Each structure stands twice: as structure tokens, then as C-alpha cells.
Amino acid sequence: MLELSSNTIKVLGIFGRLSQEQEGYFDALEKKYSNKPNPNLRYDIFRHLTLTFIRDASIRDVREELDLLYDLGLFLPVKLRAKKTFVKDEVTMPGTEHIAIEFGLEQTKELVAFVRNRVGDNTVATPYTKVVWFVPKDYQQAVIDELSNCKELVFTDFYLVSNKQNDANTIYTTNRFLSRKK
Length: 182
What we know:
Elements: E1 8-18, H1 20-33, E2 48-50, E3 54-58, H2 59-71, E4 78-81, E5 84-89, E6 97-102, H3 109-119, E7 128-132, H4 137-146, E8 152-162, E9 170-173, H5 174-181
Antiparallel strand pairs: 1-2, 1-3, 1-8, 4-8, 5-6, 6-7, 8-9
């Protein structure tokens, strides 16, 4: 029976997902330079572009996010010119740093406005994406040098996820909607 006392989800959000080719490229750099912790420690999340973030989401929020997820297909693929590569602190693990690519909010202005029109304050606008996680200081410049060839980030899908940005917590994706429309 579905009679649990809670009618909320701890965290819910929509996130852009990079193309498989770019994911593979960044995975290879992580393999070469990263000291990524054991996945059981909560850091097995996919690289992402955050569009929405809702704490203690209601069932109504889930419906609204699914409707938005469907309509976000109008924006795919999202191609963002890389402006610069930089070191980004991990706020949940002091002393830990990642390498991120900045693209600038002006490139996502239309997308963010569309999302904000639908979900208001639950909208997130971020001018960067962390692409190589858990890079020790000794390797940071080498990663930045290798990423100098990365001129563009390409997001080919949007994911609605609960609690964690990983495949196990994915509720649905824009591309699944699009493949069903055909």
C-alpha cells in the first residue's frame, strides 16, 4: 500500500546532461588525474548544468517539473562556448577542488528565462559546469592545459532527478519524451 506519512521528496531538480562523447572525454581525464573518492561516499554524480532545485518537493512539484522537462526539448542540444577553465572548490568537502569550465550566463539567458517563467524561484542560473572532479593541486594545471582544446560544452538531454544527480535517481529525461513522440 502507498500509505507512507511523507508526501515530499527531499530534493528534486532538472539538470542538463553532457553528450556521451564529452562525458567520455572528461571521464578519461578523471581517470588520469583525479583522486575521486569511493562512490559510496555520495560523489558518484554526473556532470551537470543545474536548471531547477527544489528542497522538500511536493507531488505537485513533480508534475510541474515533468511538464517543464517535456517542454525543454525545444532547447536541445544546448551548446555553450567555453570562456575559461578554472579551479572550483567543493563546498561539501573543504580542501577538495574540481576543474570547471565557465561559459557565462549570457549564453543561457533564454533557457533560464523560460525555466524561471515556469517555476519561479526554483530556477538556478549557473555560469559554469564542473567537468573533472577531485583533482589534486599537483595536477590542476595539467588538466587545465588539456582542457584548453575544449571550446564548447554540449548538453544533449535534461534529467529530472530526486535526491542525487545520478542514473539511479533519475525519474525521467527529455529525450525519453522525445523518443516516445516519434
